[in-house]
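In the laboratory, one determines a bound structure by crystallizing the protein with its ligand and collecting diffraction data. In a computational setting the workflow is compressed into a single prediction: the sequence and the ligand go in, and a structural description comes out. We illustrate the idea with zinc ion.
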Amino acid sequence: MLHRPRSTGPAGVATVRSMNLTSVLTELIRAEGQISRAELATATGLTRMTISRFMDELTEAGMVTETVKPVRPGARGRPASCATVTPGRRFALGVEVNANSLTILAVDITGSIIARRVFVQGFAGEAARRAVSWALEQAEHVLAEVAARHPDSRLIGIGMALPGILGLDGAPEIINAPNLDWRREHLTTVAAFAADHGVELTIHNEATVASRGATMPTPVSIPQPASFIYLSGEVGLGGAIMVNGENYTGVNGRAGEIGHVCVNPDGPLCACGATGCLEVYLGPKGLRQRAGLGPTASADELITAWTNGDPAARAAVDTAGRALGLVLAATINLVDVPAVVVGGWLSPLTQILRIHVHRELVTRLVAFDPADIDFLAAGDGMLAAARGAALAVIADHITRPEDLIGTTAPPAGV
Ligand SMILES: [Zn+2]
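The predicted complex, in structure-token form:
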């Protein structure tokens, strides 16, 4: 986090008001347009008068619209109004620069994608640096698109997802991103871009935010499932751990590097400099090579080769599945999380990896019944990281609603 302006005012009053407003916004987003003022009062435990005051404030800021619910024939009582969060009025940008793709999404506070630009091509080293400049150019186009479609919209923040180890204390820096061929890379142009637009920039590990983007329909949802190990296979293999709806990120925000757990110390060299990491066997780059496929082959091409009994594809999937089973058994024994979600390029392979994983879980799980471990494919894996980065920005703003409602920042695209 680079900059976080705080609302002023008497501390106690501001805190209670903020918390109440956060509850109202959370219920409004959860209800997806199907909640009346009376139901909001019940859901939040606030008085009708407080709800009315907040609703007037949110309506005046253009963030909420109310429409009269049609009364069922024969029903008694006055028609109730239903409140809806106005689409596109407040939104965050989610940007992902990965080794094989560039994604820029505008996501509004309900979690809906309102504009997008996605490019699939290889980026590494200098190309990745150029990709960052290109991402910023494309972000301007996305902002202009949102401004044209939603003239009263306001950008609230920018979240950026990158496949690497992040700098500490929210510094705009990547310490090491082997698959982008980056070490100690400063993201000053991105920070300057955010500052020019009057908003904060947050940098996230790609797998951590993808685990949220892939499992949360809105920024206030509890992920489904609530606790799981996430695998993000794009070029290398990232990972994240979700426990009871919260990412477990460790002391320095660097937990979850499942791709660099050693499966075979005498195995091939990994991009991280060690040998025999899980990434060598299961990372999309390694898996394609071992299966005898080209560097741009899709997961479906691998599945076809595997289904046709191609010996190289069979051997590559067998080895990758066994390696994954070994690592998952160890991880589940260690962190007590009963589900695995497979995202990104690897997602379509979930079904053919399952049998290998299950075999290792049966042998190695100490305190769990392997039948109780869910092994699931993530939906829409391609957009998960950029969407998750935007959701993180929005969730943070919902906890400080005065900043979200305020109209002091410049409108989108300006
Ligand atoms: Zn490694």
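The pocket of zinc ion is lined by residues 260, 270, 272, 274, 277, 279 (CB under 6 Å). Keep in mind that any predicted model is a hypothesis to be tested, not a measurement.
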